[in-house]
Specification:
The protein is mainly beta and 129 residues long. The chain has one helix and eight strands.
């Protein structure tokens, strides 16, 4: 998938663990029930889409653009998210465990639950009660 051009593409019930989407261009890409654990998606764009049951555990999504994206029953556990754009995203349906919250500004404009906020602050070593 490296350097591929993906337009109006649907990935459903797919196992793409470790896939390399480096330098891929995407427009209107839909993911549902997809395993993308440890995948390479640096700079990848999935804007204004709904991701359903997508596992991005340990994936490299640095500098990705996921603005206005809804995450339903997804996992971002231990994903590399530096420089990721979340504005307008709904992350309440995502497992955010293990994310290294180096820059809280990454989550500016995104919606998360109270439980997720406590989990992220806990990753910083704060006791949330």
């Amino acid at each position: 998938m490296r350097r591929a051009s993906l337009t109006s593409t649907r990935f459903t019930g797919s196992k793409l663990t470790g896939a390399d989407f480096t330098e891929a261009r995407a427009m209107h890409v839909h993911f549902e029930e997809v395993l993308l654990g440890s995948a390479k998606l640096p700079g990848f764009s999935i804007r204004k889409e709904t991701l359903r049951r997508v596992d991005l555990s340990g994936a490299d999504v640095r500098k990705g653009d996921f603005r206005m994206t809804v995450f339903e029953d997804c996992s971002l556990r231990e994903a590399l998210v530096a420089g990721w754009r979340f504005e307008g995203s709904d992350l309440r349906g995502a497992d955010l465990g293990g994310l290294r919250l180096v820059d809280a500004g990454l989550f500016r404009g995104a919606t998360i639950s109270r439980e997720q906020a406590g989990q992220l602050l806990g990753e910083l070593g704060l006791n949330v009660r």
